[in-house]
Design a protein that fits this description.
InterPro entries: Cu_amine_oxidase, Cu_amine_oxidase_C, Cu_amine_oxidase_C_sf, Cu_amine_oxidase_N-reg, Cu_amine_oxidase_N2, Cu_amine_oxidase_N3. One of its GO terms (biological process) is amine metabolic process. Residues 211-314 form the Copper amine oxidase N3-terminal domain. The protein has 778 residues and is mostly beta strands. It has 3 domains: 93-143 and 160-205, Nuclear Transport Factor 2, Chain: A (Roll); 215-325, Nuclear Transport Factor 2, Chain: A; 350-525 and 552-718 and 727-740, Copper amine oxidase, catalytic domain (Beta-galactosidase, Chain A, domain 5), CATH 2.70.98.20. Helices cover 10% and strands 35% of the residues. The chain contains 11 helices and 38 strands. The chain has an 11-stranded antiparallel sheet, with helices on one face. Strands 15, 16, 17, 18, 19, 20, 29, 34 and 35 form a 9-stranded antiparallel sheet that branches. A hairpin with a 4-residue loop joins β22 and β23 (482-499).
Length: 778
């Protein structure tokens, strides 16, 4: 991932706040090139260059970083990558190229090398002690307090351990999946004439698995299906002559029987057909083609099963199917929406150095992977004289599952694992193609390998900006007539991905009162089915003639590696469940009004398999066992659920073999480096029952004082409405991490009043003075 420079648009602001600080360089002020969206960026560039303040150390004294080493080979300078990139920075495009070249060169034969398909190349995240060392002495804002004090002072190494890449490589000829670890100790600054390779640390075949599918495979699958003679005949039976209108969406087969075993790489596509029209984005999902069974061998890219089982008429073209301007609701778009501009004349309040972010006493690092997408690392709060106080080491969304509730073909097979089977990060958008943020925006690029080993860059992949969020707090004293009010501002970091018909936006919001909110926004287009004339189904909603939307659920898993008031190396957290209890009538409750909060320590993994209960206001607190606030209570952060659900499918549903983690809303484990994904690393065609989280907790490890990892499963049940067509308005769900005894008082009390030149007129309208004349004319 890299920071970017962007063109100025009404919602996307040119910016470049990246500085590269090596071990040989002292902390530098980040360069800033920001523009106001309402002004000419070229005219104002010099005046806004100092809008973002420079970095300041988070400690009073920061020792100078150790001296870097520089090597050269045949006149070509080489950089020590471990000191030019932070240990948690995502792999750069150059590093990905080096990793791929290294693995290719290690192939035993030309045939093996030609058969390599690169599913994923991602950073091997180092031990937490390495991250602490880097933050203490190698990278600004230099925080030596992260490391424990030692007699005689710290021993600082001259350089950090080399970075490593982890590659998942599929062999298209042998159907094997192999995981490689490559050391990236030296990356040439100039590659001409150089070997441009790292060092293979390990290479292991993973038996009996299928890795995620790739977009290249999806495109090849569509071409192969459309070229199959029996498929063409089936399309003609349905009146489809132009195969360019046909859409073939390759879906992973999941695992329903031994026929789906990972000994073959399989897909069962869903078929759709666009209506011929002049619409630039003709909605092909409005016309599902049903009754055709197709099974594709994705390894050899051939159809191995085809059957035209049932002639279901193609739904008629719905006049309300499209959603582009001028195509909606009879071609009449709204004309009474006035411009809304978000303007920060003095620039944003956040500061950025590479992937390190500071904002309103918060600081953290931004990461990105092909599977999870956005990652938030090293979350901490600067709490006055108490200094830097850690909250979490790593926050991300690690899996999502979408099971459908229709038992009919093909819908019963629709239970996508969109992270593990496809990759949320790999399907992320470039926000150049439709900016979803307003105001001053900081963008970050993301780099991935493609299927053939090249490097693809998603520009403007991650968006960061500030948002006004209404009232933070307010009180009016009726005796004095005085009032105090503060507006809430939050920092939002997000990305959006598309998986077939659905869009998912993943957001982390940071608040001035110490809260962190995780939010998922769902939108896009419904996955539909076709109906015979006069047919209805109770497993969905008829939304147009011959067209219905099956009921389904969306589940998301957030993995939170917590570190509440824990420095690196400390494991002093525990989890407490809180439920409200009603006091029994009697001498302690003579008025029958009493209730109280009851706490229960979750002592082990099996005990910590918990579900939400809104009737008792159930929530969970991660506490530090050795740190107290001014009242003597243990400091903590609590997880407050939002709306939630559990799977409605029966306990023997086939998809639950791979998604046993959906059976509870909360799981708690002690940190283990290899325990990353709740359904295991390779859920595609996985025949093993309960792999991943539900198996790990059977160890029943102690949680009484540990390095705690929370796995929160949250979801929604979607009963489609007519109003969800042709595009689904955003549905929101998520949860909150809130300080609970973490601070000695509200951290929001020192937020300054909002500065405004708004006037309140007699007619109730609030306008700026410059607008009064215009308002009078209106």
């Amino acid at each position: 991932m890299a920071t970017t420079q962007e063109k100025t648009t009404p919602c996307c602001i040119k910016n470049d706040t990246t500085t590269t600080t090596t071990a040989a360089s002292p902390p530098q002020k980040p360069s800033n090139d920001w523009a106001n969206p309402s002004e000419d960026p070229t005219r104002k560039r010099s005046s806004v260059a100092t809008m973002i303040p420079s970095f300041e150390p988070l400690t009073d004294t920061a020792p100078p970083p150790p001296t870097a080493t520089t090597a050269s080979t045949k006149g070509m300078p080489m950089m020590v990558r471990a000191q030019t990139s932070h240990p948690l920075d995502p792999l750069s495009a150059a590093e990905i190229s080096v990793a791929v070249a290294t693995v290719r060169a290690a192939g035993a034969t030309p045939e093996v090398r030609d058969s390599m398909r690169f599913i994923e190349v991602a950073l091997v995240e180092p031990a937490k002690s390495v991250v602490a060392l880097a933050d203490a002495y190698f990278f600004p804002p230099f925080q030596p307090s992260l490391l424990p004090k030692t007699k005689g002072g710290p021993v600082i190494p001259s350089k950090l351990p080399p970075r490593q890449a982890r590659l998942v490589v599929y062999n298209k000829k042998s159907n094997d999946t192999r995981v490689w670890i490559v050391e990236l100790s030296e990356v040439h600054a100039a590659t001409r004439g150089g070997h441009h390779r790292g060092k293979v640390v390990s290479s292991n075949v993973v038996p009996d698995v299928q890795p995620p599918m790739d977009a290249v495979e999806y495109a090849e699958c569509e071409a192969v299906v459309k070229d199959f003679p029996l498929f063409r005949e089936a399309m003609k039976r349905r009146g489809i002559e132009d195969l360019d209108l046909v859409m073939v969406d390759a879906w992973c087969v999941g695992y329903h029987s031994e026929a789906d075993a990972p000994s073959h790489r399989l897909a069962k596509p869903l078929i759709f057909c666009r209506t011929e029209s002049d619409c630039p984005m003709e909605n092909g999902y409005a016309r599902p083609v049903e009754g055709i069974h197709v099974l594709v061998d994705m390894q050899n890219m051939v159809l191995i099963e085809f059957e035209d089982r049932k002639l279901v008429p193609l739904p008629p073209a719905d006049p309300l199917r499209n959603y582009t301007p001028g195509e909606t609701r009879g071609g009449v778009d709204r004309s009474d929406v006035k411009p809304l501009q978000i303007i920060q004349p003095e620039g944003p309040s956040f500061r950025v150095n590479g992937n390190f972010v500071q904002w309103q006493k918060w600081n953290f690092r931004i990461g990105f992977t092909p599977r999870e997408g956005l990652i938030i690392y090293s979350v901490a709060y600067i709490d006055g004289s108490r200094g830097r106080r850690p909250v979490a080491h790593r926050l991300s969304f690690v899996e999502m599952v979408v099971p459908y509730g229709d038992p009919n073909e093909p819908h019963y097979r629709k239970n996508a694992f969109d992270a593990g089977e496809d990759g949320l990060g790999k399907n992320a958008h470039s926000l150049k193609k439709g900016c979803d943020c307003l105001g001053y925006i900081k963008y970050f690029d993301a780099h991935f390998t493609n299927f053939n080993g090249g490097v693809d860059t998603i520009e403007n992949c991650v968006c960061m900006h500030e948002e006004d969020h209404g009232i933070l707090w307010k009180h009016h004293d009726w005796r004095t007539g005085l009032a105090e009010v503060r507006r809430s501002r939050r920092l939002t970091v997000s990305f959006i991905c598309t998986v077939a018909n659905y869009e998912y936006g993943f957001f982390w919001h940071f608040y001035q009162d110490g809260k962190i909110e995780a939010e998922v926004k769902l939108t896009g287009i419904l996955s539909l089915g076709a109906l015979q004339q006069g047919e209805t189904r109770k497993y969905g909603t008829t939304i147009a003639p011959g067209l219905y939307a099956p009921v389904h659920q969306h589940f998301f898993v957030a993995r939170m590696d917590m570190a509440v008031d824990c420095k690196p190396g400390e494991a002093f957290n525990q989890v407490v469940e809180v439920n409200l209890k009603v006091e029994e009538p009697g001498k302690d409750n003579v008025h029958n009004n009493a209730f109280y909060a009851e706490e229960e320590l979750l002592r082990s993994e099996l005990q910590a398999r918990r579900d939400c209960n809104p009737l008792s206001a159930r929530h969970w607190i991660v506490r530090n066992t050795r740190n107290v606030n001014r009242t003597g209570q243990l400091t903590g952060y609590k997880l407050v659920p939002g709306s939630n659900c559990l799977p409605l499918a029966g306990s023997e549903a086939k998809f639950l073999r791979r998604a046993a983690f959906l059976k509870h809303n909360l799981w708690v484990t002690p940190y283990a480096r290899d325990e990353k994904y709740p359904g295991g690393e390779f859920p595609n065609q996985n025949p093993r029952v309960g792999e991943g989280l539900s198996t790990w907790v059977k160890q029943n490890r102690s949680l009484e004082e540990a390095d705690i990892v929370l796995w929160y499963v949250f979801g929604m049940t979607h009963i489609p409405r007519l109003e969800d067509w042709p595009v689904m308005p955003v549905e929101r769900l998520g949860f909150m991490l809130m300080p609970h005894g973490f601070f000695n008082c509200s951290p929001a009390v020192d937020v300054p009043p909002n500065v405004s030149d708004v006037e309140i007129k007699d007619n109730g309208l609030a306008v700026k003075p410059i607008q009064n004349e215009l308002l009078a004319k209106l």
